[in-house]
Amino acid sequence: MRVAVVGAGSIGLAVAWRAAQAGADVVVHDPEPGSGASRVAAGMIAPVTEAHYGEEALVPFMAESADAWPGFAHELEQASGLDVGFRDVPTLLVGLEDGDRAEIDRQAELYRRTARQVETLTGRAVRKVEPLLSHRIRGGILASEDRAVDPRAVHAALLIAAERAGVALRREPVADLGAIDADQVVVAAGCGSARFGSASDYPVRTLNHPVRTSWMLPVRPVRGAVLRLRAVGDQPTPRTTVRGYVKGHSVYIVTRENGEVVVGATSDERGFDQSTGTAGAAYDLLRWSIELVPEIAEYHLAEVTVGFRPGTPDNLPLIGRLDERTIAATGHYRNGIALIPATAIAVAALLGDDESAAPEAFDPRRFGNGESAETDGRSLNEGTAKRLAEPFSGAPESILRTGSDIPSGRRSRGRSDAGDDTRHTDAEGAAP
Ligand SMILES: Cc1cc2nc3c(=O)[nH]c(=O)nc-3n(C[C@H](O)[C@H](O)[C@H](O)COP(=O)(O)OP(=O)(O)OC[C@H]3O[C@@H](n4cnc5c(N)ncnc54)[C@H](O)[C@@H]3O)c2cc1C
Predict the structure, then answer these.
(1) What is the CATH number of domain 2-38+153-220+314-405?
(2) Atom of ligand 1 nearest to the CA of 332
(3) Which are the contacts of 200, defined by CB distance < 8 A and separation ≥ 6?
(4) In what pathway does it function (predicted)?
(5) Comparing 56 with 17, which gets the higher pLDDT?
């Protein structure tokens, strides 16, 4: 089978690697591999502290992926010869003031409800786990299932592993999926995926005539800034990942073995604007993180980076079949690094015709947008989908689940109170 993957971020490369391992002939298309969110991400693998109200459907998939990470990291390191910076360290979630601690209690309730393991600790106990925490912190919770990895190292390793498995890389953008010569196409273009989701004609081989697709990929860029700092000489760094609320603002601190400390992240929506607001973002992230871990003030500030999370209307990813030839693996929003192993497994299974491989909640057609889907001028939205199925009895049901046929899913507005977020300036507002 000839598989084309559009996008060489971490998701696209992991999918390509797994597909090549399964025997497919894989080509990845990307003008600038690793130029997207995968380069910016902090690298938290956080099935516990990334659980949010309204996003419960994500929790089991996050947990599955987190469980797969140790084996995935090991295999990737063997295949590439690179260290991917995987750290099996817990997350401490702490709050500075009474309101912050109330927020943590609220979060802890959700973690317990979603069957995640958390332990409530006193101020003394949290400092025992993390001695660099400020003495003003009077308690928190320990999430032992959370982990972390270095996303830039993962991306570099995936490039090598995929190439060694026989994946070809074409450094060019894809403008039209129909122009790709492949049996199966996987759209994994992060924020660039939205361009592919409109009604368009392209041939579905088994039907021998063009099908007008009606799916869309409602991915939007959610901007985020992170800081990269470096401990100098023998300066101590946090042992755990520290997440906290400081006077209503959330901030996280992720430490690598090599002394890099990542502090994140802001969140706002201004299209693909990279050039504004970084001074304020850096100021906010520094003062909030220093309130939690005063030692941060002593580090070298190496980098302020802005990236774009591929957000979806309900904050859940888009993983699944779009039509007979096209699969979506995109919209991973705040958790695309955490979800690399589980997404790659799910897409490999979809390529192998296992339609149940991805959770239904991630069905990329759940936002059935009411556009009509036509074959030979007939609309599938006019209640004819089932009748049209008969002449194409060999065609999978997925082709026909368009328009009103699609389970609507949750159509909530895009949340802006993401757990890794500190600045909320988008129109929907809800600043914490
Ligand atoms: C500030 C910040 C912090 C984050 N922290 C975390 C974290 O701690 N943990 C976590 O799990 N996730 C985190 N994320 C989210 C994570 O980075 C993303 O979900 C993940 O990187 C998405 O990976 P991807 O491969 O889908 O997209 P990307 O990495 O964005 O890659 C998409 C690729 O597609 C290519 N492309 C686009 N259009 C086309 C086209 N037309 N043709 C060909 N190629 C194209 C681009 O060049 C790019 O290389 C964070 C994100 C941000 C911004």
Answers:
(1) 3.50.50.60
(2) 19
(3) 176, 177, 178, 212, 213
(4) Cofactor biosynthesis; thiamine diphosphate biosynthesis
(5) 17
pLDDT (0 to 100) of residue 348: 95
Instruction: Give distance in angstroms: CA of 386 to centre of ligand 1.
Output: 37
Token readout for 168 is 């070809």
Summarize pLDDT for 276-321 with one digit per residue, the tens. Answer: 888 999 999 999 999 999 999 999 999 999 999 999 999 999 999 9
Ligand 1 centroid to Cα of residue 135, in Å, is 37
Listed by start position, the domains of the chain span 2-38+153-220+314-405
Predicted local confidence at residue 216, as pLDDT: 85
Q: What is the pLDDT of residue 270?
A: 87
What does 21-63 look like in DSSP terms, one character per residue?
HTT-EEEEE-SSTT-SGGGT---EE-TTTT--TT-GGGHHHHH
Please give the DSSP secondary-structure letter assigned to residue 255: E
Q: Is 12 in the pocket of ligand 1 (CB under 6 A)?
A: yes
Give the H or E element holding residue 225: strand 220-230
- C-alpha span between 42 and 147 (Å, rounded): 11
CA dihedral 26, 30, 35, 41 (to 10 degrees): -40
Read off the DSSP letter of residue 324.
S
Q: Is 10 in the pocket of ligand 1 (CB under 6 A)?
A: yes
Q: What does the pLDDT read at residue 380? A: 33
- Cα of 265 to ligand 1 centre, how many Å? 15
